[in-house]
Design goal:
Blueprint: H1 2-5, H2 8-22, H3 34-47, H4 49-81, H5 83-96, H6 101-112, H7 116-140, H8 144-152, H9 157-194, H10 200-209, H11 213-248
Helix pairs in contact: 3-11, 4-5, 4-7, 4-9, 4-10, 6-7, 7-9, 9-10, 9-11, 10-11
Length: 249
Amino acid sequence: MRRGAGALLPAALLGLWHLAVQRAWLPPQILPPPGLVWQSLHELWSSGELGEHLRISLGRVGWSLLIGGGAGLLLGVAMGLLDSFRAYVQPSFEMVAQFPVVGWVPLLILFVGIDEPLKVVAISIAVAVPVAVNSDRGIRQIPRAWLEVARVYRFSLPQVLGRVVLPAATPSLFNGLRQGVMQAWLSLVFVELLASSEGIGFLMVWGRQLMQLDLVIVAMVAIGMVGVLLDTGLRCIEARLQTWRRTAY
């Protein structure tokens, strides 16, 4: 019963949508019928156009996760392990972390233009912040006695990271990764809405410009479904890692 409860709200909204179209509460130019949206979805998918837009968008997210996630992880680990580094960097990082992605765009346009680097750099910034925050938090929560034992046994830095930090901070690290992926996906749509000639965000802009709101809704559905799939995949990976972590201890 509980498994099917989540389908009640989408079914109710779909029924209300169908009723609104039947009763002509709104003109079809503003609220296209569900059948037209389904037809547009089928045509875009069959032609490969929707898949191509998603491929481009996911490629941007992948590069941004690699760059922003790597930078955020290094920064978070450094702040978590090195108190002196944390003292110098954390105040400035906390201030910069308050800036939304939209606040970076005008400055980034001056330095990197409006082409592909703008999108990757802007999304990378959105990814780096939650990854760094959660990495720092996870390491700071490790009992200091564990790190002291590592020093007594003269562990090298790779050994400390691999045998102490990584197993103990895995939940927080993965939480930061999940937040980074979601921030990347949300920021991607905004950046593509702002300046792009391809990608799933561009598809929304194109549909709005043509006054074909069925394309806009198709893009919205695709964005939501991909976001859910990404989060579900990360949850499954996290569950496997947590099993490994319990076994390791």
